[in-house]
Amino acid sequence: MRFLTTIQALPILDSMLSLLAAFGLGTLVGMERQFRQRSAGLRTNTLVAVGAAAFVDIGQRLAGDAEAVRVISYVVSGIGFLGAGVIMKEGMNVRGLNTAATLWCSAAIGAAAGSDLLVEAVLITVFVLAGNTMLRPVVTWIERLPLDRVAVEARIEVRATTTPAQLPAVRRHLIDRLRAAQYPVSDIEVAERGEEAVEVTAVLVSTAVVVAELEAVVAQLARHPGVTDAAWESSALE
Fold first, then answer.
1. What distance in Å separates the CA atoms of residue 115 and residue 56, rounded to the nearest whole number?
2. Helix 118-133 and helix 9-35: axis angle, to 10°?
3. Residue that is last in its domain, among 143, 168, 192
4. Do 106 and 81 have their domain in common?
5. Is this prediction's pTM over 0.85?
6. For residue 177, what is the domain's CATH number?
7. Which Gene Ontology terms of cellular component type are present (predicted)?
8. How far is residue 52's CA from residue 74's CA, in Å, rounded to a whole number?
9. Strand order in the sheet with 229-236
10. Tens digit of pLDDT for each residue in 150-177?
11. How far apart are CA 79 and CA 107, in angstroms?
């Protein structure tokens, strides 16, 4: 019958207000995510906020603020596993990072509400919504700017197609040309392109590049005996 001693009006009212605040604020964040058609939408963000608030509130009621702080540390680490579930890698692209970060923030909202820091919970919600809405035009503007390859770091690949017999010489020439242009090579990849052709790819150390310099390197590669095709390309870093 110990549960009868835990039925106290003021503590229960306090817990109810904390959970209601977490529910309402988590719903606001979730509505924005649902409107954007993200994988973690209204219900997920609301439940994350309510769950975090419930765990922190229980710890606080059982053992005080010190226990609540320890529970918060577990919430922070535990929400990482949930966030990892919405992150997907598709080739060179990674999706879901913003959604995972929003879940993390929803947990922070719930933790603040569960700790009876209602004003702080509201402030976190305001900043999360501002980050997901007001910063979108800024991101769009930046992405539409002309790409400055001198200032932007990217994954740079320089490729040369040759025959299996000429592969060692072409690979050595490729590395030498890049080093002469002061572009260090981090990796060399070789792939078959049919029975009579192989493609050797030099992956450069992450760095900014000068287009004219790489074009000159490619032109030198194309003139090398045994090279049937040479090119280079860049892709955004993950």
1. 6
2. 0
3. 143
4. yes
5. no
6. 3.30.70.260
7. plasma membrane
8. 10
9. 185-192, 198-204, 154-162, 229-236
10. 555 567 888 899 888 888 888 898 888 8
11. 7
